[in-house]
Amino acid sequence: MTTAPARPEPASGIRATARIVAAPDGRGGTALPVLDGAGPFALRRLRAYGPGARVALVGAMSAPLGGDRLTLTAEVEDGAALRFSTTAATIALPGRTGAPATYDTRIRVGDGATLHWLPEPLISARGSDLRSTTRVELAPTARLVLREEQILGRAGEPPGRLSARLTVHRDGRPLFDQELCYGPGAPGWDGGAVLGGHRAVGQLLVVDPAFEDAPVAPRVLGATAVLAPLAGPAAVVSAVAPDGLQLRKALESGDLTADGAIQAI
């Protein structure tokens, strides 16, 4: 009697990490002593147009899929400046096992340092299940521009399940902490108190010590966007929209990065 060979267990997803370190180069600019990525993370140094360094994340493979565990860390040392972007949207897709995927981003910005964190949107495709967390630690004189955009479903399809949490601490104290859940199993996510039928949601958060002397005044930015000051030298634009293009316009309508706030790197 022979025994049939055991079937291999289905793949449970990939584990991948990436790390960025930006540091002063001693000549008034910013160097990138660490720029390391694996799996779906392909980091590329871009041409700088000023004292800050520029890095783009190029998706080297489809991710996150169900079961993936992805971690991205970035450190901007004292006095350095970094602009981070992605070359395309990130699409959360279902995996073969039905397990959720996780995408953890950890950021630290030192004294006198500036970070523009401006990825393209995250798209939650039908059948996907993603838990995304972003945690930012800011020194007292750090400056930050951070954009988050989520698109719920591709064209003509319902979204997957998406849980997204953004936490920002400044000088060791909480500045911003928000967690939102969308899609199947998330109660009330499509109701009038949350998205009201819209399929694009996001925020633009700006932290700048200059706001201590000139705080931002709250105001309504059209029918589905609002600009609100935070309890600290910071402000946030929050918006929902029918699609990603209108969402981007709504987030930029607050002029938080215009004169008097953080300039582009």
UniProtKB/TrEMBL annotation:
Its main location: cytoplasm. Keywords: Chaperone, Cytoplasm, Nickel insertion. Pfam families: UreD. It is found in: Cytoplasm. The keyword Transmembrane helix does not apply. It comes from the Bacteria. Belongs to the UreD family. Required for maturation of urease via the functional incorporation of the urease nickel metallocenter. UreD, UreF and UreG form a complex that acts as a GTP-hydrolysis-dependent molecular chaperone, activating the urease apoprotein by helping to assemble the nickel containing metallocenter of UreC. The UreE protein probably delivers the nickel. This is Urease accessory protein UreD. It comes from Streptomyces blastmyceticus.
